[in-house]
Automatic annotation (TrEMBL):
Keywords carried by this UniProt record: Membrane, Transmembrane, Transmembrane helix
Presence of keyword Transmembrane helix: yes
Residues spanning the membrane: 12-32, 44-69, 89-109, 121-141
Record protein name field: 50S ribosomal protein L27
Amino acid sequence: MYSTVYFIHSWWAYLVVLVLIIASVNALIGLFTKRDYNANDFRISLFTLIVSHIQLLIGIVLFFVAPYFQVLLNSGMGEVMGDSTLRLYIVEHPLMMIIAVVLITIGYSKHKKKLTSNPKFKMLAIFYTLGLLFVLSRIPWATWLS
């Protein structure tokens, strides 16, 4: 089960990063060019929200079936925090990804309440770009690119 969930989580991550980059760039372009917010902008932001939430759910399942979780149960948090690889996979990566999804969700929710285009793009640009930065900061690059 672990290898299947790991495979899905790893490949879905490429989609998440791609869609999050597209949504952030789209929001920034819309903000700076002061164009009207349209249905395609809504679809991009909604698709980004959905894709990131699916990735979070897959990640939660992976967290509990991964061998790293058994290390946490058997050795305790002291050993996890002393090992940089374990700390990345058990603490840093999950926490930062949860924060990123929360930021994306907040940005999506706040942008829906705005009535004009510029504030909509501003909310999306701020929160989606912050979410993207959080995601990029804690991707296990050594594993991900190999």
